[in-house]
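Exercise 7. Given the encoded structure of a 147-residue chain, write a plausible sequence.
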């Protein structure tokens, strides 16, 4: 199946949304919650890295949407900060709730603003970018070590 870069990135978003819902549903099952938190942190770390390395620079260059990309990069910074706190927290729930809220906001901006603009940007090869994102993602997933 071939999909463009925006569809590929949004399927990551949907996966993380499902994982956050599973985390919420896990109730008092601490070992399940801590496994889910680890998977969520890994997925988000890899996702923000491939956006930062590949998608954002290509979109910035082709569209000139500097403010939009600057803001998205700042939100990635905030997410990374929360992730590093979660990885060595005794009490994950409040931090996970904060991360979920921050990611929901960030994903809405990509879905409603950035991706629709990317789809209309001339000179942005979304199929070629999808292939680059996919291969970098595979590489990062294979080498991921939790902090
Ligand atoms: Fe994203
Ligand atoms: Fe992002």
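Solution.
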């Amino acid at each position: 199946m071939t999909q463009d870069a925006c569809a590929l990135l949004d399927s990551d978003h949907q996966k993380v949304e499902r994982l956050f819902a599973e985390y919420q549903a896990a109730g008092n099952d601490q070992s399940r919650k801590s496994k889910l938190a680890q998977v969520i942190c890994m997925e988000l770390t890899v996702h923000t890295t491939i956006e930062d390395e590949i998608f954002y620079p290509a979109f910035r260059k082709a569209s000139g949407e500097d403010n939009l990309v600057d803001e998205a990069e700042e939100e990635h910074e905030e997410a990374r900060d929360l992730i590093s706190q979660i990885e060595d927290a005794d009490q994950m729930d409040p931090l996970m709730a904060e991360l979920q809220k921050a990611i929901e906001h960030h994903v809405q901006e990509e879905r409603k603003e950035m991706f629709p603009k990317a789809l209309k940007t001339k000179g942005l090869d979304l199929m070629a970018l999808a292939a680059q994102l996919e291969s970098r993602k595979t590489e990062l997933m294979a080498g991921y070590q939790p902090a």
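Remark. The two ends are 33 Å apart (CA to CA). Students should compare their own answers with the one above.
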